[in-house]
Design brief:
Elements lengths: L13 E5 L3 H12 L4 E6 L13 E4 L16 E4 L9 H5 L3 E4 H8 L3 E6 L4 H14 L4 E5 L17 E5 L2 H4 L8 E4 L13 H6 L3 H4 L6 E5 L15 E6 L9 E5 L2 E6 L2 E7 L10 H14 L4 H10 L8 E6 L2 E5 L6 H8 L6 E5 L9 H9 L3 E6 L4 H17 L12 E4 L3 H11 L5 E4 L12 H13 L2
Parallel strand pairs: 1-2, 1-4, 2-3, 4-5, 6-8, 6-9, 7-8, 9-10, 10-11, 11-12, 16-20, 17-18, 17-20, 18-19
Antiparallel strand pairs: 12-13, 13-14, 15-16
Helix pairs in contact: 4-8, 4-9, 10-11, 11-12, 13-14
């Protein structure tokens, strides 16, 4: 947590910004534009001078943590970028330096309600859906955070009647000392094991989204995942539950039942809409819709606006994004799926036959359950493996089939082993899938791995996939 025995921050403070990424540069631009006279950006990269805002100093090309006498310890205030673990700044805090972040600064200065959304997956989709519903209802709403734009870009536009919708990662939440008035915690499993010490630290990092809520605030939790119980006693905000399974346990929140979405508050049910009218593809996306419905109903948004927003919103780029149909074979880009859990969900999102393209670089994921679920999925025909994870994925699939075959008497054994193709590139995987596809098949790239062995990031991978499919 931040140490508020540290120096206070004013426009004469000596301020250091650690990291020249999206948030770091946004902080530098905002501070320089609001009369802060002594601002310096630190970054290990050298070739970024052209993007440093006017009036801001830069210290580039050195590791600012490598020297115990580093210049950063001469500053009054340090802004931590999300990629820098807060534990690295322990010495600075002990020295009385105020350590903060773009997210903390925004929370301290925001004049309106903040809606914060976190989770392992789904937070971008849920944040965007809430934003779209608010805009549909005619509200002055803004979308930012981990999804792309720093909220400092629109801070000056906000009024007390505005809404700020923020996608918040564990990086941004870990040392936050304020919570949004409306919080959402989606499916939380494990991720970013290259940053966090372990799963426990990763999950604990998300706690501040609810920990500092007051009695007039609220938090929406997904009751379908055991981890939601950790948040039931976090903060003083009212807790709402959502579930796409048994709605009987929901007394305040939203659930699905008999093909419909219901919202319930204090025991009173309101029918929201039919699930088949939801614009997002896949049963798993109902979790995101339920959370968005609960938030917007609690904010007093008109029910018809909620219905229209949920119906018209088709999702984000690289999230089960329909690309093209070629000779009856449909292609979907799910490049954002970098975990086994989201890849599993993608294969169950279709009623017809599925051909999966998976693989990429290391995220320290366990593919055991991924292999089991894929082998049990009766709609899944083939898997086309690429990248550094291909060996581990193929091993997981083969071991799963062997275990299921031994458990045939339980009724959950795969009838046939999946067809597994090893491909040397994404282009080869797409073409091989197309050659083996039939009208009615759905070719889905949902990698269950990071992209860095072949691509700069998941976006570049998704764009490459769409370009390859576009040439078929």
């Amino acid at each position: 947590m931040l140490d508020y025995t540290a120096k206070s921050m004013d426009k004469n403070s000596k301020i250091g910004i650690l990291g020249a990424g999206v948030e770091g540069l946004a902080a530098a631009e905002y501070l320089a534009g609001h009369g802060y006279t002594d601002v310096t950006v630190f970054d290990a990269k050298e070739n970024i001078e052209g993007v440093i805002p006017s009036g801001v100093n830069a210290s580039l090309g050195t590791d600012f943590f490598s020297d115990s006498d580093s210049a950063i310890y001469d500053f009054d205030v340090l802004f931590r970028s999300p990629g820098i673990h807060f534990a690295k700044l322990k010495k600075a805090r002990e020295a009385g330096i105020k350590v903060t972040s773009t997210t903390q600064f925004f929370f301290e200065n925001c004049p309106c309600k903040i809606i914060g959304v976190t989770g392992t997956k789904g937070k971008g989709t849920t944040s965007s859906l809430i934003f779209e519903i608010l805009k549909t209802a005619g509200k002055d709403a803004y979308l930012g955070g981990n999804i792309g734009e720093s909220p400092l870009k629109f801070l000056d536009n906000l009024t007390p009647d505005s809404y700020a919708v923020l996608e918040l990662s564990s990086f941004q939440l870990q040392d936050l000392t304020l919570s949004p008035q409306a919080a959402v915690v989606l499916m939380t499993t494990s991720d970013h094991m290259d940053y966090h010490a372990d799963v426990t630290e990763y999950r604990e990092a998300k706690k501040p989204i609810a920990l500092f809520q007051g009695k007039d605030d609220f938090c929406v939790l997904n009751a379908d995942y055991d981890y939601h119980e950790k948040f039931l006693t976090a903060g003083d905000g009212k807790k709402y539950l959502v579930s796409r399974h048994d709605g009987g346990k929901i007394t305040d929140g939203a659930f699905t039942k008999c093909g419909k979405i219901y919202y319930v508050a204090e025991g009173k049910e309101t029918e929201v809409m039919d699930t088949h009218k939801v614009g997002l593809l896949g049963e798993h996306n109902l979790e995101n819709v339920l959370a968005a419905v609960t938030v917007c109903m609690n904010l007093g948004i008109d029910l018809e606006a909620i219905r229209r927003g949920a119906r018209d919103f088709k999702g984000l780029e690289h999230r089960l994004e329909f690309v093209k149909e070629v000779k009856g074979v449909k292609f979907y880009n799910d490049s954002f799926s970098t975990t086994p859990e989201t890849s599993i969900a993608a294969t169950y999102a279709f009623n017809g036959p599925v051909m999966l393209i998976a693989g990429g670089s290391e995220k320290n994921s366990d593919y055991t359950e991924w292999g089991m679920e894929l082998q049990k999925n009766k709609n899944l025909k083939s898997v086309f493996l690429i990248g550094l994870m291909a060996d581990r994925m193929e091993k997981a699939l083969n071991e799963a089939h062997l275990r299921l075959s031994k458990r045939a008497e339980s009724g959950d054994a795969a009838q046939f082993a999946l067809n597994i193709f090893r491909c040397g590139s994404l282009e080869e995987a797409v073409k091989t899938a197309f050659e083996n596809g039939m009208p009615g098949d759905n070719v889905v790239m949902s990698p269950a791995a990071a992209s860095f062995d072949m691509f700069r990031n998941y976006k570049y991978r998704g764009v490459a996939f769409k370009e390859i499919v576009g040439k078929l």
